[in-house]
């Protein structure tokens, strides 16, 4: 059994115990990536390599992730029903021509974040202007943050989205063209006015305006999503956020994929961690379990008592609460009744080994298994890596 298979099986064990009926028309997804130029994009690629096979197992499609862009040259729908660009676009003329033929003959496309970027050195007029409709890249927000989106159109990909909702953390792009003026483009979701300002750097934030985030080109079977850039501790090459740990956003991804591939719609839950499960939180470094026997959370030898059983319950966007009985974990390492404060909100971030690190909403610090338990800069240390065990 390969390491990747073991990781996927471990993650599947945490999913809600919902039976998903196999789809009668399975389809094939072929995802291209380059793994450059930003560690935040590479982190997204790595997360996709775990999450999409997991989703494929649940929803009845096959998934392959490759850096071999030459496969586009003579690609047909017999080879792939859906093509993804995770972090780049092809640069070779033959590969570009092959992709254009593919989508013009009914092949489906799902693009993420950096695949929509262009500059004077990255130009593809048909893709930028005709297919995406964006024209030239203008700017981006910084640093990566969540955004509140307004759902602008009801289509198969957005059928389960609320009117307004919070995204996962990402950097956000804007472009030259107003997509509302293009009759071929239908914007599916855009930044809601309540979200401003978007960004934390005053010189790279959006304070007002119209910013499309999700859209489709009605002349093709395609979707584009502007998310796909993790928050990072660049010095330690450690992700501080997870694109695929937002149940609402994940509904868009799953419903969009099923529409693109011709799969059967689903109403299955999309929580990455079963909110009903009472899990032991086992540290990879010490092998000990998070323990709530006292008001101050500690680590102790693992047992089966209620003090070592925690529930990860989704709140909004990528954030969740971590409950031990009637009390919730705070970023001061105390257990107290949940009051909705930011100090009781966390992100559970995928690791390539199947573990998780647990990151605060405020300050993006990692839960760290020391004596006493503490928060520290996220570095990828085993003291910050946890298995969630039933």
From TrEMBL:
It comes from the Bacteria. Residues 1-22 form the signal peptide. InterPro entries: Class_I_gatase-like (IPR029062), Ricin_B-like_lectins (IPR035992), ThuA-like (IPR029010). The keyword Transferase does not apply. Keywords: Signal. The keyword Cell division does not apply. Gene3D superfamilies: 2.80.10.50, 3.40.50.880. Residues 47-237 form the ThuA-like domain. SUPFAM superfamilies: Class I glutamine amidotransferase-like, Ricin B-like lectins. PANTHER family: GALACTOSE-BINDING DOMAIN-LIKE SUPERFAMILY PROTEIN (PTHR40469:SF2), SECRETED GLYCOSYL HYDROLASE (PTHR40469). This is Trehalose utilization protein. It comes from Kutzneria buriramensis.
């Amino acid at each position: 059994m390969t390491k990747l298979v073991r990781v996927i099986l471990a993650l599947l064990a945490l999913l809600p115990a919902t039976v998903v009926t196999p789809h009668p028309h399975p389809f094939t997804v072929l995802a291209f990536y380059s793994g450059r130029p930003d560690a935040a994009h590479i982190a997204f690629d790595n997360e996709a390599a775990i999450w999409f096979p997991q989703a494929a197992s649940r929803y009845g499609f096959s998934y392959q992730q490759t850096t071999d862009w030459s496969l586009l040259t003579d690609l047909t729908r017999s080879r792939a029903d859906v093509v993804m660009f995770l972090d780049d676009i092809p640069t070779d003329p033959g590969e570009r021509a092959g992709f254009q033929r593919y989508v013009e003959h009914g092949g489906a496309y799902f693009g993420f974040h950096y695949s929509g970027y262009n500059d004077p050195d990255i130009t593809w007029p048909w893709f930028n202007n005709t297919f995406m409709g964006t024209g030239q890249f203008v700017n981006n927000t910084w640093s990566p943050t969540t955004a509140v989106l307004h759902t602008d159109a009801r289509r198969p990909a957005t059928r389960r989205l609320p009117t307004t909702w919070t995204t996962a953390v990402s950097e956000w792009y804007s472009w030259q063209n107003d997509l509302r003026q293009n009759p071929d483009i239908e914007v599916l979701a855009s930044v809601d006015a309540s979200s401003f300002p978007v960004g934390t750097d005053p010189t790279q934030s959006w304070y007002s305006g119209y910013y499309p985030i999700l859209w489709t080109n009605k002349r093709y079977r395609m979707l584009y999503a502007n998310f796909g850039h993790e928050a990072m501790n660049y010095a330690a090459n450690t992700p501080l956020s997870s694109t695929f740990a937002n149940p609402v956003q994940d509904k868009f991804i799953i419903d969009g994929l099923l529409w693109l591939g011709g799969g059967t719609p689903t109403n299955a839950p999309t929580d990455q961690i079963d909110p009903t499960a009472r899990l032991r939180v086992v540290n990879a470094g010490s092998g000990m379990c998070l323990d709530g026997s006292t008001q101050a959370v500690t680590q102790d030898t693992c047992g089966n008592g209620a003090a070592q059983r925690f529930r990860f319950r989704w709140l909004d966007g990528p954030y969740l609460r971590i409950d031990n009985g009637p009390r919730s974990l705070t970023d001061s390492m105390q257990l107290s009744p949940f009051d909705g404060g930011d100090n009781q909100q966390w992100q559970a971030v995928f690791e390539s080994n199947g573990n998780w690190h647990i990151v605060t909403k405020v300050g993006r610090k990692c839960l760290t298994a020391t004596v006493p338990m503490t928060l520290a800069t996220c570095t990828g240390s085993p003291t910050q890596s946890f298995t969630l065990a039933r």
